[in-house]
Structure formats: structure tokens, C-alpha cells
Amino acid sequence: MFAIVDYDTGNTRNLKKALNYLGVENELTDDKDKILQAEAVILPGVGAFKAAMAELEKRNLVNILREVAANKTPILGICLGMQLLFDSSQEYGFTKGLGLISGSVEQIPDTGLKIPQMGWNQNRIIQNSPFDSINGQFTYFVHSYYANCDQKNIVSAVDYGPLIPSIVQNKNVIGMQFHPEKSGKVGLELLKTFQKMVKINDFSSN
Amino acid sequence: MLAKRIIPCLDVDDGRVKKGVNFVNLTDVGDPIEIAAEYQKQGADELVFLDITATNEHRKTMADIVEGVSSQVFMPLTIGGGVHDVADIQRLLKAGADKVAINSAAVSDPELITKGAEKFGNQCIVVAIDVKKNAGKYLVHTHGGKKATDIDAIEWAKEVVKCGAGELLITSMDKDGTKDGFDIELYQAINQVVNVPIIASGGAGKVEDFTEVFEQADVDGALAASVFHFGELSINDVKQAVRKAGVVVR
């Protein structure tokens, strides 16, 4: 079972619908035991970093998620959920994150483009991974902050002023800045790839 | 660089897409889910559903439709029509909408834009503006275009963005239904004063119209209804033509 972490953030149900559509057994939960025992954990998120971390703290899930990562259980963070995987964010003042991938979350610098980045942007791969199918494909983004992190953790990226990481990975911890559940066939394919990686436990690529 | 969006718009009346859609492979031409799935297949970048009756009873039906569509179709969904308060916005977002469009209620109660943006984020609050030219001035119309106001549309666009609108859906009533091309001047004027995405609506008749509005007014998306519904243009035709002209599309 895939546990979708339920911590009162934005629309987690669309992610659930996508997993249901793909036939991936899943449950929206904030139950510690269920999250610790899950085959994989998905951390969704819409909203602001500080409030999201506070909600995770309130439910005592911060250490649980760190334990999940340490147990080598696959974690997939999506959008704000991806940003939470990093060390910290500057959104509404400095806030510590889960620290599962090193790097900080910063405002997309103003280069004259509209902020938030809202729409379909084209990905290119930075390093080979099971997510190679994303190369050249468009996925759907809605965000004002981005992950400033080491190139070694960037799987794919889009151009929007600076290079914006679209998929990041640190072994069993994976993040997607875009919404796979809103990215049509390409997005569903990427969720299926994640499911396959979980099944064959293939997290060796970086 | 973001792709320019091609957006079909569906009018919903009591749970059915009004007038239906004329695709050969649909078994039920009025079924919102089936039509949405077909548009997804054709490569639509986003869908807009407008509840054209929007009585209390129908509002619940609309939420059910959003629930159904978002279980089968995986692209951004914008829902509008009869959105009057924060509870309406919340209901639609919870059902699976990504964005909610406010039109008349934004005029009568601009604070609704701010309340919605504060609670759910700017990115999901779209303000829809129906515009008609009168004596050389672009004026805002409400209630499905039936009520004229003396509000200047360009000033209003600025104002709603200040209130927290994350996107503008601007319909030119003069162009709507003419198939005569988008109102380029209107979008140029609005694009000069706001820095949020603009969706152009009204006037699409041929593929060149889309190229023109993207190239000349630099809008973020172009919306059309009948030309797509009745198969006069396919989304793919539009995208190919627009791409050939050097505009980035998905």
C-alpha cells in the first residue's frame, strides 16, 4: 500500500484519484504506523512551506518521515511536498525542512517572467534515471519557490529564469516539482515509473 | 519557457454539457466526463467548465461533475459560474477543481477575491471579466453579460490582480460568436497593466486567430468553445499551426 500523507494541505485528493486510476493501492492517512509500514510514502502539498511544516510537526510526522527515509522506504514528494524534502526554505522567513535532500528552497528570481510559474513547461534530463521518459515532455507546474540544490540530486529540470529542478532524487527520496496528477499521460507515466521503481526497489541511480 | 495553453470551454446546464459536442466517437454527446476525456486525448492543456444555470441545486451537481471529471481526466480544471462566496470556492476545489473563476460576485464583492486568495492561494483564483466596447471604452459586464456596468475593464483588471486574482479570463463580448479573431487590442491593453496569466476568449474561428493572439498580445492561453465542440478545428490543428509560427505549445 502507498501511504499519501494527510496533513490538511491543499488538494491531496486529485493525487489519490490519479493513483486510483492507475490501480495503485493507496490510502490517505496521518497514522504513524500505516506510514511506517507503507510500501512507499507520498508527500503531497499545496500551500506555504512554513504552514506545512507546522502541520507535520503538529501530527508528529516530521521524525516519522525521517524514519521512513532512513528505513529506505521510497518517498515521493510532490510540489510543496518536494520542497519539504530539502533542508530549509526562505518562504515567509527561514524554516527548517525535513533535510532528506541537501539544498534550500528559494524564491524564483525575478527575470521578468510571471511568478508563480503556472503552466506547462518542457523538461530535459540532467542525468539518466528511470524517469528518462520525461525528456522533452511538458509537465504542469504551479509554484513561486524552487529548490536550489546540488546538480548531483537533479534528475531533470526546466528553464524558467534559472534552471528549475523538476525531478530531484537522493537515493530512495524523490521529489517532483510539477503535478504528475495534472500532467496528463506524461504525468501518469511518471507515477507508474515510480510504482515500478518501488516494486523492483531500483533507487540506485544516484 | 511556458507553453501557450489551448483551452476548450464547456457550458454545463443541470449536469449536462449544453448543446453537446459533435465528436464522432462519443456515445453520449452531453456527458461532461466523456467530453473531457476526448479533449484530453486531443491534447487540450486545460479545461474550463462554466455552470450556466448555477442555482443552488445545480451547484451541487457541478461539484459532482468536477468530482467525476477529475477522477478520469488529469489536467488542470477551471470551474466558474455562480460562484458567490468562499464556501462555493471551497466546495469546487475540494471536488477536484484546480482553479475557480469568479465573475459577477467579484464586481459586487471584490473582497471575495482577497478572501479566496488568502485561504487557497492566488494560483487558484481566476477572475473572469466580460467586456464590451461602448463609445471607445472597454466596459465590464456582469450576469453572463446581461448587465452593463460603467467599470472600465482595464482598470478593473488592475484592481482584481491587486485584490489577489492569480489569473484573468477575459471574454470580448463584441468578438464572442463572430469567429472573426480575438480582440487583440483589448489583450494588449490588459497585458500592459497586469503581471498574471491572461486567457483570451471570444472570436476564435480559424487557426490563424490563435497564432495572432499569442504573437501580438502575448496572452498565456486562448479559449474557445464552438469551434472545438463542432469539430471545425481540432486542438491538434491549432497546435500545429501555432507551433509552425514559432509559438511554444505542448
Distance between the termini of chain A: 25 Å
Give the CATH class of chain A. Alpha Beta
Give the strand order of the largest sheet of chain A, numbering strands 1, 2, ... along the chain: 2-1-3-4-14-13-12-9
Structural class of chain A: alpha/beta
CATH superfamily of chain A, called what? Class I glutamine amidotransferase (GATase) domain
Question: What is the gyration radius of chain B calculated from CA atoms?
Answer: 17 Å
Structural class call of chain B reads: alpha/beta
Low-confidence stretches of chain A: none
The H/E string of chain A reads EHEHEHHEHEEEEEEEEEEH
Gross CATH architecture of chain A: 3-Layer(aba) Sandwich
The number of helical runs of chain A is: 6
Major beta sheet of chain A, specifics?
Answer: 8 strands, mixed
CATH topology of chain B: TIM Barrel
> Alpha-carbon distance between the termini of chain B?
11 Å
Strand content of chain A: 25-35%
Total beta strands of chain A: 14
Could you say which overall geometry of chain A the principal axes of the C-alpha atoms support?
Answer: globular
Protein name (chain B): Imidazole glycerol phosphate synthase subunit HisF
Catalytic activity (chain B): 5-[(5-phospho-1-deoxy-D-ribulos-1-ylimino)methylamino]-1-(5-phospho-beta-D-ribosyl)imidazole-4-carboxamide + L-glutamine = D-erythro-1-(imidazol-4-yl)glycerol 3-phosphate + 5-amino-1-(5-phospho-beta-D-ribosyl)imidazole-4-carboxamide + L-glutamate + H(+)
Subcellular location (chain B): Cytoplasm
Pfam family, one (chain B): His_biosynth
